[in-house]
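re the bet — no i am not wrong, look at it urself. input seq straight from the record:
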Amino acid sequence: MTRDEMIEVMARGVLVQHWLDAGCDQEQAIQTARTQELFDGDEDIGDDWSTELTYQRAALSALEVAGYVVVPREPTPEMLDAFIEDAVKCDGLCDGLVIDNPRVGYAAMLSAAQQEKTDAG
C-alpha cells in the first residue's frame, strides 16, 4: 500500500464515523464513505474529502516526525528478503547476525517496507 492509499483509507475511516454520527446505519455509512463522489457538494461535509485527506496526511507526518512508521501487520516478501539478506551478510562474522541482534533484522525489514512505499508511490 502506498502512502497516499494509506491516507485515503484513514480519511474514509473518519468519514464512515461521520456518517454513523449523522444517523446512517453501518452498512450505509461504509457504502457512502467508499464513494468519494458523494462527498462533493454535501453541505455537512463540504470540501471535507480534500480537507480530510489533508488532516490524515498531517497525522501520518506527525507519526513519522515522532519516529514511527506504519508497516503491514504481516511482513511482505520484500521485508522478509531484506531480513534474510541482512543475515546472509554475516558471512561468518556474526556480530551483526539477525539472530544475535534482532534489531538489525527489524531495521532491515522496516527499510524494505519504506522502500516499497517509495517505489509504489
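see?? Residues 77-120 form one domain. told u. also The longest helix spans residues 3-21. so pay up
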